[in-house]
Amino acid sequence: MSTVTVQPIAHPLSASVTxxxxxxxxxxxxxxxxxxxxxxxxxxxxxxxxVHHFTAALGSLGxxxxxxxxxxxxxxxxxxxxxxxxxxxxxxxxxxxxARFLTAFLTLGHGEWVLDGDSRMRERPIGDLVEALTxxxxxxxxxxxxxxxxxxxxxxxxxxxxxxxxxxxxxxSALLMVAPYARxxxxxxxxxxxxxxxxxxxxxxxxxxxxxxxxxxxxxxxAVAPSRYRSPSTYAIEPDASAASYFFxxxxxxxxxxxVRHIPRRSLQGDVAFLDLLRDMGCEVSHTADGVRVSGxxxxxxxxxxxxxxxxxxxxxxxxxxxxxxxTRIRGIATARVKETDRIRATCTELRRLGVRVEEHTDGxxxxxxxxFAPAAVRxxxxxxxxxxxxxxxxxxxGVRVDDPSCVSKxxxxxxxxxxxxx
Length: 423
Known about the structure:
Elements: E1 3-5, E2 13-17, H1 23-35, E3 37-43, H2 49-60, E4 64-68, E5 73-79, E6 87-91, H3 96-106, E7 110-116, H4 127-135, E8 140-141, E9 149-154, E10 159-163, H5 169-178, E11 186-190, H6 197-209, E12 215-217, E13 221-224, E14 234-236, H7 241-254, E15 256-261, H8 274-281, E16 284-288, E17 291-295, E18 304-306, H9 314-320, E19 328-331, H10 343-353, E20 358-361, E21 364-367, E22 376-378, H11 384-394, E23 400-403, H12 415-420
Parallel strand pairs: 2-15, 3-14, 6-7, 10-11, 18-19, 22-23
Antiparallel strand pairs: 1-23, 3-5, 4-5, 7-9, 8-9, 11-13, 12-13, 15-17, 16-17, 19-21, 20-21
Helix pairs in contact: 1-2, 1-3, 1-6, 2-3, 3-5, 4-5, 5-6, 7-9, 7-11, 9-11
């Protein structure tokens, strides 16, 4: 296994960086473009591993996909709700959005498919989505509630589904995006609290951009009438706010200022709320004509943060927390235990490896200030966010090595190059 040693930066930062397009927005746009009629050009797209799995799956289903990596654009020729292929096997690696979105998508077709992933994906829950689709008239099964999923499709009937949404907001997003192509109106009644709510807001917003409205009662119920997506011809993807969080965090850890270019003031992505936590810790945040700028504080304060709506930035906050003057409590992220790895257990384990005192809780952790770090090789557990978050600690602490750094390709293939640009 390869290892990268992160070299500390001994001076306050003064940098401006660009991060890739949002993986979450790109995969949603790919699905809606495939459902619309005719071509849609997705610009500023992500080309991360998760997106490659999604585009490969659409290609194997008979959709024409043109990828222009130089211009960061993907063109999808949609078939108006029809899936050209009638049978096959799809492999999605450990891409959660691809697994959940494609499972719902395939129920609109007419044929037999098996959707599978790697060993970790076979441990990640999908049973609540399968149950909801079954209530809407689909025929599919996932033994043990995890992939592989076997789909025997003859279109989606529609109707009312009671959805357990506490495990993943992706279940709700998947159901919403395919709902316009059901034979009858679709109503989703959520029987549990919804975590990661901004991701459902993102789904509703991109559906509107493709011409379909969702009626909703806050986060309790959603309704979609039979309709058709209309291609906007071109759909631009925002820079990835989750990826940007690492560079905002770098200024908090090292001091100085980092700007991430092109992050919009009114982003569709909930992870921009991470900026509010940085303000609470004492950092200065400002929006410019060209993005968002964060300047570090002379003394960071610990925070008590419910990160249930922005769990993908929890590891980023955990990497900042040892440099604060008071403890930081991260709560509300119990679902992080079923992500690419058990992110709560993994984060606590690796912080301790570096000499940081941390208490693990069912729904998060408490991280205490650290005066003496221990140089160590940090395990990443095949999780891109472990690699990126713990690399930040190495910007200030000598001797931090990150195992399996290539795992960042899942969402941010060029992460270590951009990190190096901070110098």
